[in-house]
Design the sequence.
């Protein structure tokens, strides 16, 4: 398949103030669009003007949520290079997500090369202010006009781009988190290991209720015993207890985050003891009582890390460290963003530099 190109008549205004980008509301001039149907297989791929989709109101995705997505970023370095961070990991995870939702396979290498072409074309949209980047959102949907419950045969796979600033308005300030003991995000064997849009839809109500009570996000516990910690909001979670970094092991309900994986690697290389295992909310409470709960933070592509100041669990308040962002959290943030923005040598081969 060849990647075509459709030029748009006029280009949009680019954001004037890069300090006010926020997250995910502004989109660039072009998108990648790929199409598949039963007869022809993958028959269309092009960079096209960013515009509204035309879908049948009966399109499968609108009824049964056959949708998966990814999130990655392109970064401008101070010396004018453009870097992507471990983008092939997003392609691999998207293939696994698609398989879990019975969607037909796609060519991940072709998709990644199309993303490179799109970002090159849209390079003037990559913001340069500190902490900003170009968010890349590949999206895969089943679109047959058919309301029977079945896997689609017709698909759209598209990629849109959004210049972004900080994901959370409070940035790196530690936040209060509500320990969710009622709703669950997923269970083992469900879709929690994938980036299915539906996972995020079912998390909204808990998030809204937590917001109303004055909390930033919820801490998700396992769906069966409601005891073991899984994720925080839409991020993976890390604890530093008595000098050791602990994150829930991936055992069938947790998203295998690219940032999560990068932090584990960095911690091991820095000689910080790390462990992937089940960790219960009782253990965290006990660690706090013993003065050993040093740091808690979420990790994800959008925010990199997000420090937790307090966990509110029923009528108990678990305070983390001294309420400030922890030292290890800071080191992970600085090292990962340092590699992403080309300030720190990438000894891992994590970055892909776009050749202009
Ligand atoms: C992340 O990158 O941390 C996320 O998963 C949030 C994203 C869905 C906007």
Sequence:
């Amino acid at each position: 398949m060849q990647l075509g190109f459709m030029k748009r008549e006029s280009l949009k205004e680019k954001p004037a103030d890069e300090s006010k980008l926020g997250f995910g509301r502004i989109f660039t001039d072009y998108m990648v669009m790929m199409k598949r149907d039963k007869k022809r297989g993958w028959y269309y791929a092009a960079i096209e003007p960013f515009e509204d989709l035309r879908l049948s109101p009966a399109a499968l995705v609108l009824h049964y949520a056959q949708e998966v997505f990814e999130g990655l970023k392109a970064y401008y370095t101070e010396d004018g290079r453009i870097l992507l961070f471990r983008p092939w990991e997003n392609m691999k995870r998207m293939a696994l997500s698609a398989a879990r939702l019975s969607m037909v396979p796609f060519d991940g290498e072709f998709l990644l090369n199309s993303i490179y072409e799109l970002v090159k074309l849209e390079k003037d949209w990559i913001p340069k202010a500190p902490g900003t980047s170009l968010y890349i959102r590949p999206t895969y949907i089943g679109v047959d006009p058919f309301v029977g419950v079945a896997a689609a045969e017709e698909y759209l796979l598209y990629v849109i781009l959004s210049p972004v600033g900080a994901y959370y308005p409070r940035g790196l300030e530690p936040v209060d988190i509500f320990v969710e003991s009622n709703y669950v995000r997923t269970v083992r064997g469900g879709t929690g290991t994938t980036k299915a849009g539906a996972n995020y839809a079912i998390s909204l109500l808990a998030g809204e209720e937590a917001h109303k009570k004055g909390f930033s996000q919820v801490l998700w516990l396992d769906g069966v015993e409601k005891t073991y910690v899984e994720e925080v909001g839409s991020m993976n979670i890390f604890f530093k207890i008595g000098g050791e970094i602990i994150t829930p092991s991936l055992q069938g309900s947790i998203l295998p985050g690219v940032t999560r994986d990068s932090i584990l690697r960095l911690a091991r290389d820095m000689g910080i003891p790390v462990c992937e295992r089940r960790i219960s909310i009782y253990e965290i409470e006990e660690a706090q009582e013993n003065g050993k709960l040093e740091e808690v933070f979420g990790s994800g592509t959008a925010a990199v890390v997000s420090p937790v100041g307090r966990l509110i669990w029923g009528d108990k308040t678990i305070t983390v460290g001294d309420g400030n962002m922890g030292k290890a959290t800071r080191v992970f943030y600085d090292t990962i963003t340092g590699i992403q923005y080309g300030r720190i040598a990438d000894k891992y081969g994590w970055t892909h530099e776009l050749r202009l």
Q: What stands out?
A: Residues 87-100 form the longest helix (14 residues). The chain has two domains: 4-164, 175-340. The helical segments are 60-64, 87-100, 108-121, 197-201, 204-212, 258-269, 281-289, 327-340.
